[in-house]
Specification:
Number of strands of chain B: 0
Structural class of chain A: mainly alpha
Oligomer: heterodimer
Strand order of the largest sheet of chain A: 2-1-3-4
Largest sheet of chain A: 4 strands, mixed
Order of helices and strands of chain B: HHHHH
Strand content of chain B: under 5%
Structural class of chain B: mainly alpha
Largest interface: A-B, 51 and 38 residues
Order of helices and strands of chain A: HHEHEHEHEHHHHHHHHH
Number of helices of chain A: 14
Distance between the termini of chain B: 14 Å
Strand content of chain A: 5-15%
Helix content of chain B: over 70%
Helix content of chain A: 55-70%
Radius of gyration of chain A: 28 Å
């Protein structure tokens, strides 16, 4: 026991001497979350539209205005010929091209069908959402025209139609920020923890101090524990800092138990530290450790954990891979506690998975270190 | 001292990875971001490379439509490489 305490003291001393590392450890997560929390949104806003209005009548102006008024779309330019829209879509200056044919006003007045054409830039990340939003806007506008016409004809302004009574749970405004900020929080914690711990053992190897540790009568498990405790302390502080940013700055609703969230965050950090230490024991140089951490840990976690893309949409074999990512379970926990306010009863399978994975990876790290010593 | 500097520097480099992923238009649309943040995305090289890739692979559009992105990438590379070689020169002199 005393050996572990001494090792912890040594690690803390080393960390405190490191005048450059410590500020990065605390300032970087806060800054990154504050900045990237704004970036991580899938909400539709200001989609640039180029309009080719060949009708130039009141009806066509009303149609264009109804798009502009929603805030989802932003009128970028008016062009005279449909061919000019190519320039805007090709050059990434507009994501939508709206063509209103010359007969639009006449067709509408005649009571028949009026058609408008929309060109959508399918290379955009949110092309599908844009399409849906556009259809809804057009349908709404058409309904308005129909109601107005009925009213003018003296009929009761009532249209037969189906009404969808939708009620969104947990996130009534469908704000993607509430959903994404917890995800960014997890990413930030993962990146900083994995990177820092992946340096922990290999740094001693490069500095040559590893031999000194090996000749002391310390066991590999004690060494890993001695490395783990100081980084867990830092991790706890980082967790509290980023949680404060999410709750106070981004005002993400907190419906569950904060203490449970902090405790489970620590469990996740233990996983990240375990991965980092394992990387550290298998690497010969810090560069190697860095590369391994980035390409085999952080990149897969970012793309496969359900942070950016829904796991259900992935091909089945890839879905199996996602079971190996601690971040996957942590994201369910985070979003569950933040937004749904659920507790143990619902989250225990995720907690069990995290605990099992954490224990497994730490055991592997100890084993690897054992072999290297011998 | 050099050793910890190196660690700190590597972490600083790594800290730029998350922003370049999230600010590059790869996952989240830049148009949906707040205006100040949209300006920040201009200095993310990945953003311009993604623009060029999408233009070339999917749209097949001509050089004039992504010339700006190309110019920014070239300028960025020039600046970064110049700074790097200046720093190296200084280190070689002092070392």
């Amino acid at each position: 026991m005393r050996r572990i305490v001494e090792l912890i003291r040594k690690e803390l001393l080393q960390l405190r001497r490191d005048r450059r590392l410590l500020p990065i450890l605390f300032v970087a997560p806060v800054l990154q979350l504050a900045l990237l929390g704004y970036a991580a949104t899938t909400d539709l806003k200001d989609v640039p539209v180029a309009v080719c209005d060949l009708a130039r009548c009141q009806a066509s102006r009303e149609l264009v205005q109804s798009f502009a008024a929603s805030g989802d779309f932003r009128l970028r330019a008016y062009v005279d010929a449909p061919g000019e829209l190519d320039l805007y879509l090709d050059g990434n200056r507009a994501d939508l091209g709206l063509v209103i044919p010359a007969s639009y006003g006449r067709d509408l007045a005649a009571g028949g069908h009026a058609a408008v054409q929309v060109l959508v830039d399918g290379t955009r990340v949110n092309a599908t959402t844009t399409m849906n939003q556009l259809s809804a806007a057009v349908a709404e506008h058409a309904r308005g025209i129909a109601l107005e016409r009925l009213a003018r004809a003296g009929a009761s302004p009532e249209l037969p139609g189906l009404e969808l009574a939708s009620r969104v749970w947990y996130n009534p405004e469908l704000s993607s920020r509430n959903f994404m900020v917890p995800g960014v929080l997890a990413m930030v914690l993962l990146v900083i923890t994995t990177v820092v711990t992946s340096m922990a053992v290999v740094r001693e190897r490069e500095a040559g101090t590893i031999e000194q540790i090996i000749v002391t009568p310390i066991r590999p498990s004690q060494l890993i524990l001695g490395k783990l405790v100081p980084y867990s302390l830092i991790g706890l502080l980082e967790t509290i800092l980023v949680l404060a940013v999410a709750l106070l700055w981004f005002q993400v609703p907190m419906r569950g138990n904060l203490a449970l969230l902090v405790a489970l965050s620590m469990l996740f950090m233990l996983n990240a530290q375990g991965i980092g230490l394992l990387v550290s024991t298998i690497s010969h140089t810090q560069q190697q450790a860095m590369m391994t951490a980035v390409f085999f840990v952080i990149l897969p976690m970012m793309l496969l954990s359900g942070f950016a893309f829904p796991i259900e949409n992935m091909p089945q074999p890839v879905q199996y891979v996602t079971y190996l990512l601690p971040l996957r379970y942590f994201l369910v926990i985070l979003r569950g506690i933040f937004l749904k306010g659920v507790g143990w009863g619902v989250l225990w399978p995720q907690v069990a998975a995290l605990a099992a994975f954490g224990a497994g990876i730490l055991w592997l790290a100890v084993l690897r270190f054992h072999k290297r010593v011998g | 001292v050099a050793e910890t500097q190196q660690v700190a520097f590597q972490i600083a480099v790594l800290a730029t990875m998350l922003p370049s992923m999230l600010l590059s238009d790869l996952i989240f649309p830049i148009a949906s971001m707040p205006a100040p943040l949209q300006k920040v995305t201009w200095v993310v090289p990945a953003r311009h490379f993604i623009t060029i890739l999408r233009s070339l692979i999917l749209k097949g559009s001509g050089v004039e439509s992504w010339a700006l992105s190309l110019a920014i990438l070239v300028a960025f590379a020039a600046v970064v490489l110049t700074v790097a070689s200046l720093r190296l020169a200084r280190r070689l002199r002092s070392g």
